[in-house]
Amino acid sequence: MKKTIMTLVVALITVSLVFANGGKETTSGNELPTLKVLGPFLANFDPATDPTTTAIEERTGYHVEYSMLPQDGAEQRLNMELASGADYDILRLDPKFYTNLVGQNAFLPLDDLLAEYGQEMLSVISPETWKMGQYNGVTYGIPMMNERANIENTIVMRKDILDELGLDVPHTLDEFTETLRAVKAAYPDMIPFSASPVTGGAESLYIETIISAFGFYFDWNERDGELVNRVELPEYKEYLAYLKGLYDEGLIDPEIAVNRRVNLDEKFASGTVFAIPSCWNDISTQVPALQANVEGAEVVYLTPLEDAEGNAKIRANRYLNTVTAIPRNAKHPEDAIKFMNAKLTEPTFTYITLGTEGETFTKDENGYHPIMPIFSELRNNAWWYLNGIREKEYADMWLARTRRVEALGDAFDAVNAEYDKYAAISPIAEMPTMPSVSQYQAACNQMVSDYEIQAVMGIVSLDDMDSFIQEWKNAGGQAMTDEINEWYQNQD
Prior knowledge:
About 45% of the residues lie in helices and about 15% in strands. With about 500 residues, the protein is of the alpha+beta class. The radius of gyration is 25 Å and the shape is globular.
C-alpha cells in the first residue's frame, strides 16, 4: 500500500512539474532527453550516419534526431512545420529565414536560459555578435558569424587566352572592357563574359569586382554620415548603364537572365565562356573542371577594378552565417541550451570541428592542417552541426577546412592574397535584426534583382529609374533606411 501511495504521489508531482513548466517535458537525475534538430539542406549528407553525429553524442551525452529542410521551397516548408506545431528543440536557420520569422513570435526568448545554462556560449561569442541575434533588444537567436573575415568574390578569367592575345590582366574598367572586346574579336564563338542571377553570394547582377570601379562596395554605403542604399546612389545607375552597354555590344552572355549556377559552371568548364564572376568556394570546382576539359587552360583572378581616382576595394565577408533559434513549442528548451553550450566547451569544440590532433589534423607555427583523407572522412560535414563558434580560436582552426582540397585552399589563398589592401567591411556587418528589415527586406531585394536584369536587357529604361526608386521606398525601402540610420547614428 505504501508503495502504491508513493507511486501516486510521484506521478502527481511529475504532472505538476509539467504544467508548471508550461507543458515542457522535464528530465530528472542524469537522464537526458532526445533532442530534435532541424537544419538546412546539404546534398549527399545523412546526419544519421555521419561520424560527427557520433562524436557530438559521445562528448555531450545527448542523443539527437536530425532533420533537414528540402533543397527547394525550404522557407515554405519551415513555415508549414512551425504552423503545424512540429516539436523541434533546435532550429539552425539561414539568417533570412530567422529575420522573416523573429517578428512573428515564432521563437522563445533566450536571455534567461542563456544566463542559467549558456555561460560558455556567452563567453566565446562576442557581444557584438550577440546583438545580431536580438530583436527589439531581446535575444531570440544564437548568432554564428562566418568563420573569419575574408574576401569571397572575384572574377575568374582565362589567363591562357590573355597570354595568347598578348593582354595584361585588367585593373581598370576600360581595361576590362577592352579585354572583353579583344576576346570577342579573336574568338567569335566564345562568350566574353557571363554571370547568373545568383553568383558567389551576390544578389542578381551585383558583381562586386566591377562595382569597385564605381566607388561603392556595399548594399548600404556611408554618404555624409548617413547610410544610403545602393539603389539611391547615382553611381549605381552608372553601373547598370555600363552593364547594359556590355550587353548591347554582345560582350555579355545573352542568356544572362536565365542562367543558374549549374549553367554557368558548365559553360565555363567547357571553354564556352572567357570570364565569370565567382567566389573561392565555387572556383575550387570550376577551375579543375575547366582544366580537365580544356588542355592548357589557365586562370587568373581579378582584384577589384580601380575607380577614376585609382581606388579599389571589395566587401570582405563579415556576415551572419546562421542563427539558431528555439521554437515556442519546443519540449526541451533548457536541454537545448545545455547541449549547445556543451558543444562550445574545450576540448569538445576542437574535437567536434577538427577531430583528434595527430589523427585528423596537425598544428604548427603556420596554423592547422588536415590529415587527408581521414579528416574529410570524419569531419567533412562538421560545419553543418555548429550553432555557434569559439570566435577567436576558430578563425585559424577553420583554415584547415580550406586546405582539405588543394584546389579549395589555392583558390582561397589566391583571392585573399591581398586582403589587407582591398578588404572593406560593410558598415552594417554587425547590425542586429531590425523589425523593418525583417518585414521588408525579402520583397525589396526581389524588386532590385528583377529591376537589374530588366535594366541591363533594356526591358526597362534607366531614364525612369527615379520611378523605380520611389517604388522601392514605398515597398519598405524608406522604412529600412530610416531604421538602419537610427541604429547607425547610435554606434560608437
